[in-house]
Design brief:
- There is one protein chain.
- With about 425 residues, the protein is mostly loops.
Length: about 425
């Protein structure tokens, strides 16, 4: 059996396209889905260019941990819920096709450049800048060329992979309906990502199999300072989540602990309203409450229009954390359109995607100074219908098709004719501007 057929066979264990996978089921899954005892399957070597008995490290089916993950989690069919990387990478001018909440790792393989229409400055947006640079040699993902360690932390870039965040052996589990996480005490019987509740005798997995306190993958065992100190966040995803959001948002109900968990690697960026940070950063964390910004969030519909209500004001382009570990309440909120309250808080994922995006630092929208997200009622792009839409700071080197996909398939008509930054969802700075004509 060759590598492609292995991936197909394992994929058959997964649920239908766009829905929650059954293979991991919140725990360790089948050993031979990821490992091979003798580097052989049906008489053929598993490792590329290796013979029987001389396989990959840790007896993995891929040449490294992330390559093994991507045997199942990469693909070119849109909407497969478990795909997080378009493979093969899209051609220039064409966008990645996966639309999971975390983003598509294929943006790491796409670089853009443009000329600012005002200053004439050339700006490059390298693939390395678009997200977490996983090392997956079989799929042409390599260490970040800009940083040797995680910004704001000590995690080594050369050891960053899928298993840096996700524990493939599922040791972390939610023990009760309040989202309490532990590593033992109860066996795991289901995924903890979709609202299934623990029972008196059985646990569910941690959200997205994320590692918790003490977690240290084998790839970075030589760097003990990289061990996690915070447990996984509490969150609930809808079961269908890899889709266009042109007809409605995909709402992941983030409960609590996301920013604290991100601080396992980016500790210097952990910043609350009540504390200080050695790195200038936006407040994020369980104590970074929205307070009065909640009213602005709920009223803001788009630039120059502030007549929204809390009942329908949510957008997954600017998600917030609810500040609770109640799994039942979070599961109910995955189908809600309701906006924010003063007790909700900003998290790292309010502005960033967990995997990658089309923009630098994996932001959810274009944050280039002086840019508009829509121009004259259309998405910008190198092939936009107007000169202003083609301007470098607006198009950021992308075609209109790439730009719309980066906005998760939304119609430009849902925004202002000339839409400002979505920072305004909480801060209303564009309420003082004159609508451009």
């Amino acid at each position: 059996m060759n590598r492609a057929s292995i991936a197909t066979a394992v994929a058959l264990l997964l649920a239908t396209a766009g829905q929650a996978p059954a293979f991991h089921d919140g725990g360790v899954a089948s050993c031979d889905g990821c490992h091979t005892m003798h580097n052989s399957s049906e008489g053929q070597p598993v490792g590329v260019g290796t013979g029987t008995g001389t396989g990959n490290r840790y007896l993995l089916r891929g040449s490294d941990a992330s390559s093994t993950c991507l045997l199942c989690h990469a693909g070119s069919i849109p909407g497969d819920g478990y795909r997080v990387a378009t493979s093969p990478p899209p051609a220039p001018g064409a966008p990645p096709v996966q639309l999971t909440p975390g983003g598509d790792f294929a943006y790491l393989q796409k670089s853009y450049s443009w000329v600012n229409s005002v200053t004439g400055q050339v700006t490059a947006s390298s693939g390395d800048s678009h997200g977490h640079n996983i090392v997956a040699a079989d799929f042409l993902y390599f260490p970040d060329s800009r940083f040797s360690v995680a910004p704001g932390g000590t995690y080594p870039a050369a050891g960053l992979g899928c298993t840096s965040c996700h524990d493939p052996h599922g040791r972390y589990r939610q023990l009760d309906t309040n989202g309490t996480v532990g590593t033992g005490g109860k066996p795991t019987f289901a995924s903890g990502s979709y609202g299934t509740l623990p029972t008196a005798t059985e646990a569910v997995g941690s959200y997205r199999l994320l590692g918790g306190a003490g977690y240290l993958p084998a790839a970075v065992a030589a760097t003990p300072a990289a061990a996690f100190v915070n447990n996984p966040p509490v969150a609930v995803s809808p079961t269908t989540y890899n889709r266009s959001e042109g007809a409605g948002d995909v709402r992941v109900a983030y409960g609590s602990g996301m920013s604290e968990w991100c601080a396992n690697c980016h500790g210097a960026y952990q910043h609350s309203l009540t504390g200080t940070s050695p790195v200038a950063s936006h407040p994020a964390g369980i104590s970074a409450k929205l307070q009065s910004e909640a009213d602005e969030y709920n009223s803001y519909l788009k630039s120059y229009l502030y007549t929204g209500t809390i009942a329908t004001s949510y957008t997954s382009l600017v998600p917030f954390e609810e500040g609770t570990g109640d799994l039942t309440a979070l599961a109910a909120d995955t189908s809600s359109t309701a906006g924010a309250t003063a007790g909700n808080n900003v998290s790292c994922l309010t502005c960033h995607r967990a995997h990658a995006s089309a923009w630098g630092s994996a932001t959810r929208w274009n944050t280039t100074p002086g840019s508009y997200l829509t121009v004259s009622g259309s998405w910008p792009g190198t092939n936009a219908p107007t000169i202003d839409g083609q301007k470098g700071e607006n198009a950021t080197g992308k075609t209109v098709q790439e730009y719309q996909q980066a906005m998760y398939g939304r119609d430009a008509g849902g925004f202002a004719i000339n839409q400002g930054s979505l920072c305004n969802k909480c801060h209303w700075n564009d309420s003082h501007q004159v609508q451009p004509q």
